[in-house]
Design a protein that fits this description.
Blueprint: E1 4-7, H1 8-15, H2 17-24, H3 33-48, E2 53-61, E3 64-81, H4 87-94, E4 98-100, E5 105-118, H5 130-148, E6 152-157, H6 161-169, E7 173-179, E8 192-199
Parallel strand pairs: 5-6
Antiparallel strand pairs: 1-2, 2-3, 3-5, 4-5, 6-8, 7-8
Helix pairs in contact: 1-2
């Protein structure tokens, strides 16, 4: 099945912000309120402010194009504790990170898959797998890294065994936790998010 991956910025530049918001109303994700809230309430503004880039994934359904999912990527500073890293990963990160003796960890700016989710409206989620959607996000980051350098990507998810297993099966490993901010608590379960890291150095688009 063919997919189109479109930068949200290109959509609102072409049809205007009001029309874009109408299109995004079609997206539903009851499994994760934060995923739906971000796309409808924050994605356009974050794109305008160059905080992040959101990519809409579309496919054909009954002779019309529909949103099947999306992902948002940004560059974000994070801390990776020394104790959770293998010697191999530590040497790899040393090339791109600064070690902080006070926190006993590496302070590093990495590409972040800030949001990723399928559209559960009208069963559109069945038109794409989570693995394919995550691959599209990694493809986009790898494309950028091929031009400017870098090899790692990270994401944050709820401490859910099914979610954790999904990301581990797709090459990510847990490296820490981040406590939720006040404005995140009503849209996420628990008091923190797991942080997952992947090395894309041997990843092929």
């Amino acid at each position: 099945m063919g997919y189109k991956i479109i930068n949200l910025k290109d959509i609102y530049n072409a049809v205007g912000e009001s029309r874009t918001k109408e299109v995004l109303k079609d997206f539903k994700c009851d499994l994760n309120n934060d995923v739906e809230y971000f796309l409808k309430e924050k994605a356009i503004e974050f794109s305008k402010q160059d905080i992040s880039r959101t990519y809409i994934v579309m496919s054909q359904h009954k002779e019309k194009e529909v949103i099947v999912g999306y992902f948002a990527i940004a560059n974000k500073s994070t801390i990776i504790k020394k104790v959770i890293l293998s010697n191999t990963k530590r040497k790899s990160l040393l090339k791109h990170a600064k070690y902080d003796n006070e926190i006993k960890g590496y302070n590093i700016a990495l590409p972040l898959i800030g949001q990723i989710g399928k559209n559960y409206n009208n069963g559109y989620d069945k038109l794409i797998s989570g693995e394919v959607l995550l691959k599209f996000a990694c493809d986009k980051i790898k494309e950028i890294q091929n031009m400017i350098g870098g090899r790692h990507v990270f994401l944050e998810c709820e401490d859910n065994e099914k979610l954790k297993e999904f990301y581990e099966n797709n090459g990510f490993e847990c490296f820490g936790k981040r406590n939720l901010e006040k404005d995140e608590m009503d849209k996420n379960n628990g008091a923190y998010l797991l942080q997952m890291l992947r090395d894309l150095s041997k990843y092929n688009i």
